Amino acid sequence: MPIQSDAEPMFLKISDALCLRYEQTGAGPPLVLVHTIRTQLENFRGLAPLLAKSHTVYAIDLPGHGHSQIDPSAPLDEPYFRQAVIAFIEKLNLSGVTLVGESIGGALVLTVAAAIPQRIERVFAVNPYDYETRFGDGIRRGNWFANAIVGSLQLPVLGAVNAWLENKIVLGKIMGGGFHDPRRLPPDLLAEYAEVARRPGYKRGARKVLAAWRSWSQARDQYRLVSAPVTLIYGNSDWSRPDERERTRELLHDARLITLKDTGHFAAVENPSELARVVLAESVPA
């Protein structure tokens, strides 16, 4: 299920150990989309076509996600993902880039902007996942089912069992906790995520991402270095609390904070039209 366009996904070799899958659509200034934990570029299948009306949109699969290369030796923490996104931008020699990221992607677009300010024009951080206070804290807030599953991942034996047992039903229960209305989680998208999870090494990588939870809250240390204009976008039903959202805003220079109604953590899937409206309106030069 590619993004709705005539484009076919491509692969960009970053190094001998890493090749990133991405899809390019539209025409205009470059805009890079960075997805959430445990998803992939198809997460933006409703959003990318709307943004492609005025931008060249690059939607990527993060390392170890979707159909990008899985390197079993990679740490899969925030600094590793950050360097991968930077390498993607530099390999394609993109400049004047608008970054749009959701969840861990929301934290990543901020740290990437801090690292390569000369290439970044504007940043939209959607429900940035930067508020961890314990293992799986954000995911725990989704629902009781996610709390039980993520909590058991702290125990090596139960964690291994859960990774082996994960199927579409389990994944749907966990991800549904990130929606204002769980019925908005498309069954075919969930089926794609479940199918991708069968790739060799994928579930081990997913556990590595969760094990690196401290790196996402530590990412906030980079926010003060962001010089590009930033818009923070939160769903009113996002896992983050109002005080955590305000803490993030205060770390950024004159960041705008916008809240989307009837929207949860996975805003790009649940409310792509309203998210696109905000991004396109904020992208118009003053």
Question: In terms of topology, how is this protein built?
Answer:
Elements: E1 10-15, E2 18-26, E3 30-34, H1 48-51, E4 56-60, H2 78-91, E5 97-102, H3 104-115, E6 120-126, H4 137-140, H5 144-152, H6 156-165, H7 168-176, H8 187-196, H9 202-211, H10 214-218, E7 230-235, H11 242-251, E8 256-260, H12 267-270, H13 272-283
Parallel strand pairs: 3-4, 3-5, 5-6, 6-7, 7-8
Antiparallel strand pairs: 1-2, 2-4
Name a few traits of the molecule.
40% helix; Rossmann fold; eight-stranded mixed sheet; globular; alpha/beta; 286 residues
Q: What would your notes on this structure say?
A:
This protein is an alpha/beta fold and 286 residues long. The protein has a domain at 10-136 and 213-283: Alpha/Beta hydrolase fold, catalytic domain (Rossmann fold), CATH 3.40.50.1820. Helices cover 40% and strands 17% of the residues. The protein has helices at residues 48-51, 78-91, 104-115, 137-140, 144-152, 156-165, 168-176, 187-196, 202-211, 214-218, 242-251, 267-270, 272-283, and strands spanning 10-15, 18-26, 30-34, 56-60, 97-102, 120-126, 230-235, 256-260. The chain has an 8-stranded mixed β-sheet. Helix 2 crosses helix 3 (104-115). The longest helix is centred in the first third of the chain and has 14 residues, at 78-91. The chain is globular, with a radius of gyration of 17 Å.
Strand order of the largest sheet: 1-2-4-3-5-6-7-8
CATH class of the domain at 10-136 and 213-283: Alpha Beta
Low-confidence stretches: 152-165
- The whole-number mean of residue pLDDT values reads 88
Q: Per DSSP, what share of the residues sits in E-state strands of 2 or more residues? A: 15-25%
Any idea of the CATH topology of the domain at 10-136 and 213-283?
Rossmann fold
Please identify which CATH superfamily of the domain at 10-136 and 213-283 we are dealing with: Alpha/Beta hydrolase fold, catalytic domain
Number of E strands:
8
Order of helices and strands: EEEHEHEHEHHHHHHHEHEHH
Regarding quaternary structure, how should these chains be classified? Answer: single chain
Distance between the termini: 37 Å
Specify Rg, calculated over alpha carbons.
Answer: 17 Å
